[in-house]
Design goal:
The structure holds 2 protein chains of 2 kinds.
Chain A lengths: L3 E12 L2 E12 L3 E5 L6 H8 L7 E6 L2 E5 L15 H5 L3 E4 L11 H8 L6 H14 L1 H5 L10 H13 L5 E5 L7 H18 L2 E6 L2 H7 L2 E6 L2 E7 H6 L1 H7 L3
Helix pairs in contact in A: 3-6
Chain B lengths: L7 H32 L6 H19 L7 H30 L8 H22 L15 E3 L2 E3 L1 H23 L1 H11 L1 H6 L4 H26 L6 H17 L3 H22 L6 H15 L14
Antiparallel strand pairs in B: 1-2
Helix pairs in contact in B: 1-5, 1-8, 1-9, 1-10, 2-3, 2-4, 2-8, 2-9, 3-8, 5-6, 5-8, 6-8, 9-10, 9-11, 10-11
The chains are: A alpha/beta, B mainly alpha.
The complex binds adenosine-5'-triphosphate (ATP) and magnesium ion.
Chain lengths: ~250, ~300
């Protein structure tokens, strides 16, 4: 048995009669940073949403930490074998996600956003400690704590989104394009933080990125998604040297 | 004398009457606005939830006491019937959402709206069938002799309505602003799927929203039955007015619903005295003013320009 924390097996997702994921297999080992790159519309966000139950699978299976969290059943197997959980139930097993477009609550303060990240935690003292940790990690959030999150800059919102996703101390963190629309200097900052979270907090990270060079340089393993199919899967350092990847995603 | 050329004590009198009426509208408007905030949907059966809550309170009240006897037991019975009415309305609201709205959540916008209108008509007709169409009086639990204060008269019932309204609204505001579940409600209204990503059970939050809004409607229904009368269509006009009050305050905004309700109560009362128009035209005046407010501020008084999500 490998130390896989997350496995996607033959995952299919459809929007109406358009199939966005056409049988995707992904394995993520505990402690690693794994990235998923692909062009616009390849199905990257759909893949992350299918993990947390925000998009239903039409076929396939998701295994987290040895437990089936989603299973549509084989064609022959009985209905009772099927597993379907609502998003909050899946999240409660130790997965967290910073969604595409940050998804902060604009009419709530920075502090309230962080508190929402700790919604499942009842221990008030623990919540307080975690908030202080996040303030240490992102000092700007401390200065802005009373401010409405909608009034933050894009980069600040992204930091808030990541900090909020860490409030539940997840075992697996899903990040959907954390660098989208940010200035290069801020992007560097965000990627450094992601490495640091992986190193220091021992969180497994599944990172979706358009910025292939950055993503591959901080990750252990990479997947390339093209119109709903995984077309390449390798160690990130190999993908960085792969001629196809170079041509299509690194602009070399 | 003042701006309106009305003696001070009279002015105070109208203010008092307007606030009492407004408190009732506010309590109803909160239900519309809370549900809209989360589902972007107008629960047109809200007025009937109010009416059924009022009937529930009425039957419990007369089952356990004889109001003509007076005394502390009647007050106790009244409190029990108020609480029972709140619980029954809350359960009814939760039930209606489950069977008539939830299955339509992914359907086109018009479908749940029609479902709500259907539920409203069904409940109104059932009430007429079982309770009869004649209007009833809900007897006061306390001696309602008017109290004279420096030329202004106030009834104990008015004092009670104002006090209950104030307590309910303050409690609600504190709950939504400060409590864990209240914050989860706000989060859910701002972004449902992200709220789910926080581990919030969105369906539970929606049920909770219906429960709270419906319980407040039951309180309003009983207050109306005490001040006015109890009848199967009582939720119709009151519901419509409260809905408009919620829109004027800024639909989806809690403080806006409170403000809109109070404003409507005051407009109805003052429209008659200031302009000296006949009593029967008070709705015309009130609604004209509300339309003007909407023309000037279409999204309602308390809605900020919410920035679109990136
Ligand atoms: N809610 C939806 N309804 C219908 N089609 C959708 C929906 N969401 C995504 N799609 C389609 O599914 C495909 C994959 O979309 P997805 O958002 O997963 O792509 P992506 O790889 O994340 O793209 P991007 O890099 O632009 O974020 C696209 O063709 C898109 O048009
Ligand atoms: Mg995407």
């Amino acid at each position: 048995m490998s130390n896989a924390i997350l496995e996607l097996k033959n995952v299919h997702v459809s929007y109406g009669n358009i199939e966005a994921l056409k049988g995707v297999n992904v394995t993520i080992n505990a402690g690693q940073i794994v990235c998923l790159i692909g062009a616009n519309g390849a199905g990257k966000s759909t893949l992350l949403k299918s993990i947390v139950g925000l998009e239903p699978l039409t076929r396939g299976e998701v295994v987290f930490n040895g437990e089936r969290i989603t299973y549509t059943g084989g064609d022959s197997s009985a209905k009772k074998d099927r597993v379907f959980h609502s998003t909050d139930r899946i999240i409660s097993r130790g997965i967290s996600m910073a969604p595409e477009g940050r998804g902060i609550f604009p009419e709530m303060t920075v502090l309230e956003n962080l508190e929402m990240g700790a919604f499942m935690i009842k221990d008030k003292a623990l919540i307080k400690t975690r908030i202080e940790e996040k303030y240490e990690m992102f000092e700007i959030l401390k200065d802005r704590r009373k401010q409405l999150a909608g009034s933050l800059s894009g980069g600040e919102q992204q930091m808030l989104s990541i900090a909020r996703a860490l409030m539940s101390a997840p075992r697996l963190l899903l990040l959907d394009e954390p660098a989208l629309g940010l200035a290069p200097i801020i992007i560097q900052n965000i990627f450094q933080t992601i490495s640091k979270i992986s190193r220091e907090d021992k969180v497994t990270i599944f990172l979706v990125e358009q910025n292939a060079k950055m993503a591959l340089s901080i990750s252990d393993k990479g997947y390339v998604l093209e119109t709903g199919n995984i077309v390449l899967e390798d160690d990130s350092k190999n993908l960085l040297e792969n001629p196809k990847v170079k041509a299509a995603y690194l602009g070399e | 004398m003042n701006l309106f050329n009305i003696p001070h004590n009279e002015l105070l009198q109208h203010l008092l009457n307007g606030l009492t009426l407004g408190a009732i509208y506010s309590l109803i408007a909160l239900g519309y606005t809370m549900v809209y905030g989360i589902l972007k949907f107008i629960n047109f059966a809200h007025g009937e939830i109010l009416m059924l809550g009022a009937y529930a309170g009425y039957y419990v009240y007369y089952l356990i006491c004889d109001p003509s006897q007076g005394g502390s037991f009647v007050i106790f019975a009244f409190i029990i019937s108020l609480l029972t009415a709140m619980v029954i309305s809350a359960s009814l609201g939760v039930f209606i959402e489950r069977v008539a709205y939830r299955p339509l959540r992914k359907a086109p916008r018009l479908a749940p709206l029609l479902s709500a209108i259907g539920v409203s008509i069904i409940l109104m007709n059932l009430a007429a069938l079982f309770f009869g169409t004649k209007s009833r009086k809900f007897d006061y639990p306390i001696d309602n002799t008017t109290i004279q204060l420096d030329g202004t008269s106030i009834t104990p019932n008015q004092i009670m309505i104002l006090a209950v309204g104030l307590i309910m609204m303050t409690a609600l505001k504190l709950f939504i602003d400060k409590s864990r579940l209240g914050k989860a409600m706000r989060a859910t209204s701002q972004n449902q799927s992200v709220a789910a990503l926080m581990g919030i059970n969105v369906n539970f939050i929606i049920s909770l929203t219906f429960a709270i809004g419906s319980a407040l409607a039951a309180v309003a229904g009983i207050m109306m039955s005490l001040e006015f009368k109890l009848y199967p269509t009582m939720g119709q006009m009151a519901g419509l007015k409260a809905f408009i009050a919620a829109v004027v305050g800024g639909i989806g905004n809690i403080s806006g619903a409170m403000l809109g309700g109070i404003l409507l109560g005051l407009l109805e009362t003052f429209g008659v005295v200031i302009l000296g128009i006949p009593q029967g035209l008070k709705d015309t005046i009130a609604f004209s003013v509300l339309i003007i407010i909407l023309l000037v501020k279409p999204s309602g008084l308390l809605i900020k320009n919410i920035r679109e999500k990136v």
